Amino acid sequence: MRAALLRWYRRVRRDMPWRREVSPYRTWVSEIMLQQTTVAAVTPKYEAFLKAFPNARALARAPEDAVLKRWAGLGYYSRARNLRRAALEIVAKHRGEFPSSFDEALALPGVGRYTAGAILSIAFGQPHAVVDGNVIRVFSRLFGLPGRAKDPAFVEKIWELAAPLVPKAAPGDWNQALMELGATVCTPDSPSCGACPVSKDCVAFKKGIQDELPLPEKRREPTPVRWSCLWIERGGKLLIWRRSDKERLLKNLWGLPEAGRLRASAGRRIGAVSHAITHHALTVELLEGSLDAGAELPPETKWVPLSKARDHLVSSLWLKLLKAR
Ligand code: SF4
């Protein structure tokens, strides 16, 4: 089964920039970007990011805002912050090179068991397993295991299953083959079992229950959130607000000030958008705002030229709102 899957992967694997040239740094950046983001969205951003920050030293030297700007559109901005913090540690503790020890990799900000396993297997050829949504689905079907992909006990069971299967000779290809199979053949809906290189070993296929595994998730309704934000403009400049790390959403990112957080009055409505962020359904309205006479601005605000506003408002929520204005 392993040989068949590896042969298939080497024949059909999709061309991706991080597969053309492999290095620990390149694999690390790609793995962080690919968490919760599609290959299609990551590909153009990855090239530009690598050009701006070709190695850990360049990334560590860059100011946080410059890194966030390159991350714009990918969402989950804590990943970009952690990437930079990890680069600082790599420079300070590992002479600028991504560590080849699993425990040292795991100690870096933003690097969990999956990411450490992926980087060490792909870029260092070490036999570590990886388990992501694709691998959970493939193993659930291949071994006929009923379970929910988000159930921690089931996920742990898949890790236990995955670890001894990793071949010492080609751990990176094996891990990528499993993920590639899940992404292109053993897809969530209507898997293409007829084109699957491991169908003759697949329990779910033999029983005809491939559409029933893994078990469906319990539906979770998104939490509704409403914001009213102010558009405060003065002399060709826009007032922006840095959200604190205590905020529920878009922590530590520049945005438009919410009404009620400044001594300002709100006027007519000039735009509104709906936007989804990690299980939250936001409805954001944009109101013309003007600062009250003598109002002092808090330190988390600043004026930026209107033409530069997009450089600071990196979340796609703000870009959508700017367009709706
Ligand atoms: Fe998935 Fe079908 Fe292949 Fe089984 S035979 S691993 S269900 S694609």
Explain what the structure shows.
The protein is an alpha+beta fold. Helix content is 43%, strand content 15%. It contains 15 helices and seven strands. The protein has helices at residues 2-12, 17-20, 24-34, 39-52, 56-61, 64-71, 78-94, 102-106, 113-124, 133-142, 152-162, 171-184, 203-207, 309-312, 316-324; strands at 223-231, 233-234, 237-242, 254-255, 264-277, 280-291, 301-305. Strands 2, 3, 4 and 7 form a four-stranded antiparallel β-sheet that branches. Helix 3 (24-34) crosses helix 4, helix 3 packs antiparallel against helix 9 and helix 10 crosses helix 11 (152-162). The longest helix is centred in the N-terminal third of the chain and has 17 residues, at 78-94. The radius of gyration is 23 Å and the shape is globular. The termini are far apart. The structure holds iron/sulfur cluster (SF4). Iron/sulfur cluster binds next to helix 10 and helix 13.
